[in-house]
TrEMBL record:
It catalyses: D-mannose(out) = D-mannose(in); D-glucose(out) = D-glucose(in); D-galactose(in) = D-galactose(out); D-fructose(out) = D-fructose(in). One of its GO terms (molecular function) is hexose transmembrane transporter activity. SUPFAM superfamilies: MFS general substrate transporter. This is Hexose transporter 1. The keyword Transmembrane applies. Residues 11-444 form the Major facilitator superfamily (MFS) profile domain. Its main location: membrane. Gene3D superfamilies: MFS general substrate transporter like domains. It is found in: Membrane. The chain crosses the membrane at residues 7-28, 48-71, 83-102, 108-125, 137-160, 172-193, 269-291, 303-323, 330-350, 356-378, 390-411, 417-437. InterPro entries: GLUT (IPR045263), MFS_dom (IPR020846), MFS_sugar_transport-like (IPR005828), MFS_trans_sf (IPR036259), Sugar/inositol_transpt (IPR003663). The lineage of its organism: Eukaryota, Sar, Alveolata, Ciliophora, Postciliodesmatophora.
């Protein structure tokens, strides 16, 4: 097949920066919360503010996820990303001002942009990538997600753990929180100056045939251009049937009401719930706290956090191999059931006070299982099987669940013990695996048209 993979990989990496921006913004407070608290004089309110400001990002992301379908349809994938780049830059500037109130406002604004970014990334990548290359390029969004977490934790490693007031390096957190603003400005410049091509599917949907062909020429060689046109023409016609009944597209109200969308909507919502009931973002947000609870010092908790997140990062590359060999449904079932066993063992290890190294090993294993299943495979599945508005519903569910789970986790840990939380996550993953086996369709090797047909006429 003739594809211009150099252009494709550069474009995909720049789109996948969206995943980096989300995960970095979500996790950056993990290692620097005490330092921020010292700079802003949180005092006895430290625990309350850490929980509040950690939750404000996923809370803001709920609104960003909800806006994705509307913005991306009106302004295109590229145009809407540039709008949210500006929002992220503004929020990052607000967050580093020396005020607790403005810090909270900035966290919320960057959360709104983050929610949009995480939702639009898989959709945009799927729409510019030929079917044969989706298993290779689809997982890149999860790889950049994990890169954001790794960088956030590494940057927090040199921060002081004592004597915050007298250590000038304590204010290093200001640079850490401004990194999303820097990268958003870069991404904005890239799409404004270097890459002016939007999704061919979006262009065809709005009858911009010449621009769509020009966009396709960036990916397909001349001899295979017709194949790309047929792929997107087919999808845009299918979308036209789905999104119009005398009007341009269905509203969210109609999507929730009409029977044809029920299976797709159910799958999107359930996958969002299952992903977050794995406990992944409690680990991302509170890993330092978790390792301290299990007996590590503040500095060693940061070291353990970095070790496990590097394993998380490496696990994403495994997903590229697995997605080329196995079906999406198969990987999701195997991954969720493996997560169930892993969380069960982690609960036992913490209940009986095994050495902390066993917890480090099990959390590392958790990240590997999550990376190739509810991470890379789930986002690939969402890009393949859901239309934009239902993908935004799924993302909104994910962000809502992050708020709920991350907000309740420290409370339940203090009330019942951390091991009961692990047992709960284990049970949820067992039920999640059963649901995926029962209700999801397999998408591997099928065109977008075939997948949509199974979804609407199941």
């Amino acid at each position: 097949m003739g594809y211009k993979e150099k252009y494709l990989i550069v474009t995909v990496l720049h789109i996948a920066m969206c995943g980096f921006l989300f995960s970095y913004t979500l996790s950056v407070m993990n290692t620097c919360a005490d330092n921020i608290g010292a700079s802003l004089d949180w005092g006895d309110n430290q625990d309350f503010y850490v929980t509040l400001f950690s939750t404000l990002v996923p809370f803001g992301a709920i609104f960003g996820g909800m806006a994705t379908g509307v913005l991306s349809n009106k302004y295109g994938r590229r145009g809407s990303i540039m709008i949210m780049d500006a929002v992220m830059l503004f929020g990052s500037c607000i967050a580093i001002l020396p005020s607790t109130l403005l810090f909270g406002v900035g966290r919320f604004i960057t959360g709104v942009a983050s929610g949009f970014f995480l939702t639009i990334g898989p959709v945009f990548i799927n729409e510019i990538t030929p079917d044969e290359l989706i298993p290779t390029y689809g997982p890149i969004i999860q790889i950049t997600n994990n890169t954001g977490i790794v960088l956030a934790y590494f940057l927090g490693l040199p921060l002081p753990t004592t004597d915050y007031k007298n250590n000038n390096f304590n204010n290093w957190w200001i640079f850490m929180l401004f990194i999303p603003g820097i990268l958003s400005f870069y991404q904005l410049c890239y799409f404004l100056l270097c890459n002016k091509h939007d999704s061919p599917l979006w262009l065809l949907r709005y009858e911009k045939q010449d621009e769509a062909i020009l966009a396709l020429r960036q990916v397909y060689n001349d001899e295979d251009l017709e194949k790309g046109i047929n792929r997107f023409n087919r999808n845009s016609k299918e979308d036209s049937k789905i999104n119009s009944s005398g009007e341009k597209e269905y509203s969210y109200y109609e999507i929730f009401k009409l029977k044809k969308f029920k299976k797709m909507l159910r799958n999107g919502i359930m996958l969002g719930i299952i992903q977050q009931l794995s406990g992944v973002n409690t680990a991302v947000i509170y890993s330092t706290y978790i390792f301290e609870e299990l007996g590590g010092s503040a500095y060693m908790a940061r070291i353990y956090t970095i070790i496990t997140v590097i394993v998380f990062f490496m696990g994403c590359f495994l997903s590229i191999f697995l997605l080329n060999k196995f079906g999406r449904k198969t990987l999701l079932i195997f991954g969720t059931l493996s997560l169930s066993v892993d969380m069960l063992l982690l609960g036992i290890v913490t209940l009986f006070n095994f050495h902390i190294i066993f917890a480090v090993i099990l959390i590392s294993a958790f990240y590997v299982f999550f990376a190739f299943s509810l991470g890379a495979t789930l986002w690939t599945y969402i890009g393949e099987a859901l239309i934009e508005k239902i993908a935004s519903v799924s993302s909104t569910v994910i962000f809502t669940m992050i708020c709920v789970v991350s907000g309740l986790f420290p409370i339940f840990t203090k009330m019942f013990g951390i091991y009961y939380c692990f047992f709960f996550f284990s049970l949820c993953m067992a039920f999640g695996g059963c649901y995926i086996w029962k209700d999801l369709i397999e998408t591997r090797g099928k065109s977008k048209c075939q997948i949509l047909g199974e979804m609407y006429f199941h």
